[in-house]
Structure formats: C-alpha cells, structure tokens
Design goal:
By secondary structure, this protein is mainly alpha-helical. It is built from six helices and two strands; from the N terminus they run H-H-H-H-E-H-H-E. A two-stranded parallel sheet has the order 1-2.
C-alpha cells in the first residue's frame, strides 16, 4: 500500500506541475492535469487533496469542472486566444515541416472545439460563489 500511495502522490504532483505550466503554456491543458492531480491525491493523501480543492486559484478550476462541467467565459477566451497565438506563431515562424504544421493546426482545432463544447458558467455558478466540493476522499474507491 505504501508503494501505491507514493506512486499516486508522485503522479499527482507531476500532474499538478503540468497543470500549473498549462496556465502559462497554451499547448498544455490546465484543467485535465488538475483533475488528474485531484484524483491521484484523493486516492492517496486526504491532506493534499483538501489543499488542492480549496486552493484559492487552482481549486476553482477543479470545482467548476467537477460540479458544473463548465468554465467561465474569461477562461474560454483566454485559453482559446493563447492557444491560437502559440500555435500560429509556431506554425508561421518556427516550424518548417508541413506535416507538423498541419498536425498543430488540427490539434488547435480539436482543443478549440472541446473548449467551446463546455458549458459556460454564469455569474451565480462561477467564480468565488462555487461552494465546497461535494466529493470527499472517502466517496471514491
């Protein structure tokens, strides 16, 4: 059990690191990595899980997605804008291989469609008004 716990905490911490990087690097998705981190912590460390879920910034991403399967308009606009800025600058200025340019553009289209398919949080669901998360570490086995 100790090995499983250490592996889950390590995987959760790596996912958390990648999720935080995803805030600044548009080619890395933030929310999926934070959700993976929460899932790993939920199964290994109640203290880390509670810290993550109630974190002032990161907890909002997770709670919004888990409770509502939705993100704010601001998150959609910033995510899609940064994604296309990074992809287009890479395609236009840094990548010369045609197949790689096409692949990056297809990935950007896929991520954009996914983000647009998510529900948009309204004022009474989004932001700081999201209540405590209903899932507890003991609820998932």
């Amino acid at each position: 059990m100790l090995v499983k716990k250490v592996l889950l905490i390590s995987a959760g911490s790596l996912a958390l690191f990648l999720g935080i990087l995803g805030i600044f690097l548009p080619v890395l998705p933030t929310t999926p990595f934070l959700l993976l981190s929460a899932a790993c912590y939920m199964r290994s460390s109640e203290r880390l899980y509670t810290w993550l879920i109630h974190h002032k910034v990161l907890g909002l991403y997770i709670r919004s997605y888990i409770e509502h399967r939705a993100v704010t308009v601001k998150a959609k606009v910033v995510s899609i804008s940064m994604l296309w800025l990074a992809i287009l600058s890479s395609v236009l200025f840094f990548i010369s291989l045609l197949w790689l340019r096409i692949l990056l553009l297809l990935i950007a289209c896929g991520v954009t469609l996914y983000l647009l398919s998510l529900k948009t949080l309204t004022g009474d669901e989004g932001g700081r008004s999201i209540g405590p998360l209903q899932i507890k570490p003991t609820d998932v086995h």
